[in-house]
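Notes taken during the Thursday session

The instructor put the following on the board and asked us to keep it in front of us for the whole hour. The protein is inorganic diphosphatase. We were told not to look anything up and to reason only from what is written here. First, the residues (309 in total):
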Amino acid sequence: MATAATASASRFAAAAGALYGFRWRTSPLTHRAFFPKPRSAASLRSRRHFLAPAALHRHDVQIQEEGQPETLDYRVFFLDGSGKKISPWHDVPLQLGDGVFNVIVEIPKDTSAKMEVATDEPHTPIKQDIKKGKLRYYPYNINWNYGLLPQTWEDPSFANSEVEGALGDNDPVDVVEIGERRAKIGDVLKVKPLAALAMIDEGELDWKIVAISLDDPRASLVNDVNDVEKHFPGTLMAIRDWFRDYKIPDGKPANKFGLGNKAANKEQGDDYLYYLLHGRASWNLCCLINSTCLLLGAWTWSRACQRLI
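Then, after some discussion, the predicted structure tokens were revealed:
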């Protein structure tokens, strides 16, 4: 029997289709709407696939832990100033102006528990990833703070012709923060992007944006790839090698990297990366609505969301 959530998701998909001229399909298990076939980079040059969400932008974020760390039930929720649960993915603003971005820390440096925003749960709390019913860990500690750019999403229907035609990995854009301080799970860092690595993981494009917290003592010294090489020698190569090899101990092949196996500078990369690194991505972002609209795990365009509420 169809649930109210399924019906709402179907209406949601129909509204998006009517608004943008395409037909959506929805999964009866997750109520997630998705595109029926990949699109090419050429087909999207004139109209990017990221739209600004209509979420409330909160700066006074608090953290609430539920359950015990390193258990299946552990969650890190985000609260606004009134104590109301919000989504770190949808409700924390991406940009702060002057090329400064917010980053949500999921995995602190020198730890190995594979923490991530739960994109299919209401309010998208941070939890430890699970595979076959077991908590996941990296085979060794990660050497940098690792997290995501809020209000971003790597579109799994978009074939990036500049990176071997790889499709987006259906997750927020990842950030590797290279500052000296070890952050905490749920910290919201103000960072400036410095470079990007185009990782290809089992055929999916999984950007790794390299950034530094503005609070780091060396933040004023670095603004691009050359500065990172000068003041953090070997770091970009170390990041690439870490993400290339971390699955090998589990018997999987090494990941690959596009863009000539090198870190992209602000003047390089595809259109999306260029706009992101230049602080001009907000005009064209995509969002989920499982916390900010109808509490459903369905992909949508924010304008379609506004029509429903």
